[in-house]
Amino acid sequence: MFKTVLFPIDQSREAREAADVVANIVQKYGSRLVLLSVVEEPSAEATSADPMVSPQVVAKLLENAQALFLQEGIQSEVLERQGKPAFTICDVADEIGADLIIMGCRGLGLTDEGATESVTTRVINLSPCPVLIVP
User: Which of 49, 41, 2, 18 is nearest to 120 (CA)?
Assistant: First the structure.
Protein backbone atom coordinates (compact mmCIF):
# COMPACT_ATOMS: atom_id res chain seq x y z
CA MET A 1 0.00 0.00 0.00
CA PHE A 2 2.77 2.46 0.93
CA LYS A 3 5.69 1.59 -1.33
CA THR A 4 7.65 4.75 -0.52
CA VAL A 5 7.42 6.64 2.77
CA LEU A 6 8.94 10.10 3.19
CA PHE A 7 9.88 11.09 6.72
CA PRO A 8 10.94 14.74 7.01
CA ILE A 9 12.94 15.22 10.21
CA ASP A 10 14.24 18.07 12.28
CA GLN A 11 15.55 18.23 15.83
CA SER A 12 12.12 18.43 17.43
CA ARG A 13 10.82 16.06 20.07
CA GLU A 14 7.78 15.50 17.83
CA ALA A 15 9.94 14.18 14.99
CA ARG A 16 11.64 11.75 17.38
CA GLU A 17 8.26 10.53 18.64
CA ALA A 18 6.98 10.07 15.08
CA ALA A 19 9.92 7.74 14.34
CA ASP A 20 8.16 4.86 16.13
CA VAL A 21 5.12 5.23 13.87
CA VAL A 22 7.37 5.43 10.80
CA ALA A 23 9.20 2.24 11.80
CA ASN A 24 5.91 0.44 12.38
CA ILE A 25 4.44 1.40 9.01
CA VAL A 26 7.64 0.75 7.05
CA GLN A 27 8.01 -2.69 8.59
CA LYS A 28 4.33 -3.58 8.12
CA TYR A 29 4.23 -2.63 4.43
CA GLY A 30 7.86 -3.35 3.51
CA SER A 31 8.18 0.25 2.36
CA ARG A 32 11.16 2.14 1.03
CA LEU A 33 12.03 4.77 3.65
CA VAL A 34 13.42 8.14 2.63
CA LEU A 35 14.61 10.47 5.39
CA LEU A 36 14.63 14.15 4.49
CA SER A 37 16.01 17.11 6.32
CA VAL A 38 15.79 20.63 5.01
CA VAL A 39 18.51 23.18 5.61
CA GLU A 40 16.47 26.32 5.97
CA GLU A 41 17.49 29.44 4.15
CA PRO A 42 18.45 31.95 6.82
CA SER A 43 15.80 34.63 7.27
CA ALA A 44 16.05 38.03 8.89
CA GLU A 45 14.46 36.61 12.07
CA ALA A 46 16.68 33.52 12.22
CA THR A 47 19.37 33.57 14.83
CA SER A 48 22.79 32.13 14.21
CA ALA A 49 21.92 29.58 16.88
CA ASP A 50 19.09 28.09 14.76
CA PRO A 51 20.33 24.51 14.22
CA MET A 52 18.39 23.84 11.02
CA VAL A 53 20.39 26.46 9.10
CA SER A 54 23.65 24.57 9.65
CA PRO A 55 24.39 21.94 6.99
CA GLN A 56 26.73 20.15 9.44
CA VAL A 57 24.00 19.84 12.08
CA VAL A 58 21.49 18.60 9.50
CA ALA A 59 23.97 16.03 8.13
CA LYS A 60 24.58 14.69 11.66
CA LEU A 61 20.82 14.58 12.31
CA LEU A 62 20.28 12.47 9.18
CA GLU A 63 23.18 10.17 10.09
CA ASN A 64 21.76 9.60 13.58
CA ALA A 65 18.25 8.98 12.24
CA GLN A 66 19.54 6.49 9.70
CA ALA A 67 21.44 4.65 12.46
CA LEU A 68 18.30 4.59 14.64
CA PHE A 69 16.25 2.94 11.89
CA LEU A 70 19.09 0.53 11.08
CA GLN A 71 18.91 -0.70 14.71
CA GLU A 72 15.28 -1.63 13.91
CA GLY A 73 16.45 -3.52 10.83
CA ILE A 74 15.20 -0.81 8.46
CA GLN A 75 17.33 0.40 5.58
CA SER A 76 16.77 4.04 4.67
CA GLU A 77 17.92 6.59 2.16
CA VAL A 78 18.80 10.12 3.21
CA LEU A 79 18.25 13.37 1.37
CA GLU A 80 19.40 16.79 2.45
CA ARG A 81 17.94 19.77 0.66
CA GLN A 82 18.00 23.52 1.09
CA GLY A 83 14.93 25.71 0.95
CA LYS A 84 11.66 26.48 2.61
CA PRO A 85 10.68 23.31 4.51
CA ALA A 86 7.05 22.86 3.44
CA PHE A 87 7.69 23.47 -0.24
CA THR A 88 10.84 21.36 -0.24
CA ILE A 89 9.08 18.45 1.49
CA CYS A 90 6.30 18.45 -1.11
CA ASP A 91 8.75 18.79 -4.01
CA VAL A 92 10.77 15.82 -2.74
CA ALA A 93 7.61 13.75 -2.18
CA ASP A 94 6.67 14.36 -5.81
CA GLU A 95 10.22 13.71 -7.04
CA ILE A 96 10.58 10.32 -5.30
CA GLY A 97 6.99 9.21 -5.91
CA ALA A 98 6.15 9.06 -2.19
CA ASP A 99 2.94 7.27 -1.29
CA LEU A 100 2.90 8.72 2.23
CA ILE A 101 4.54 11.53 4.19
CA ILE A 102 4.75 11.02 7.95
CA MET A 103 5.42 14.07 10.12
CA GLY A 104 5.46 15.01 13.76
CA CYS A 105 3.35 18.02 14.70
CA ARG A 106 4.18 20.73 17.23
CA GLY A 107 0.59 21.95 17.45
CA LEU A 108 1.48 25.46 16.28
CA GLY A 109 -1.29 25.33 13.69
CA LEU A 110 -3.95 25.39 16.39
CA THR A 111 -3.92 29.16 16.61
CA ASP A 112 -4.82 31.61 13.86
CA GLU A 113 -1.27 32.96 13.76
CA GLY A 114 0.28 29.50 13.85
CA ALA A 115 -1.88 28.12 11.05
CA THR A 116 -0.28 30.40 8.48
CA GLU A 117 3.26 29.64 9.72
CA SER A 118 2.93 25.91 10.36
CA VAL A 119 5.08 23.70 8.12
CA THR A 120 2.66 20.84 8.80
CA THR A 121 -0.37 22.84 7.64
CA ARG A 122 1.43 23.90 4.48
CA VAL A 123 2.51 20.33 3.71
CA ILE A 124 -1.05 19.06 4.19
CA ASN A 125 -2.33 21.68 1.75
CA LEU A 126 0.40 21.20 -0.89
CA SER A 127 1.26 17.50 -0.67
CA PRO A 128 0.98 15.29 -3.77
CA CYS A 129 0.20 12.29 -1.51
CA PRO A 130 -1.47 11.49 1.84
CA VAL A 131 0.12 12.98 4.96
CA LEU A 132 0.03 11.22 8.32
CA ILE A 133 0.46 13.61 11.22
CA VAL A 134 1.73 12.14 14.50
CA PRO A 135 0.75 14.35 17.43
Answer: 18
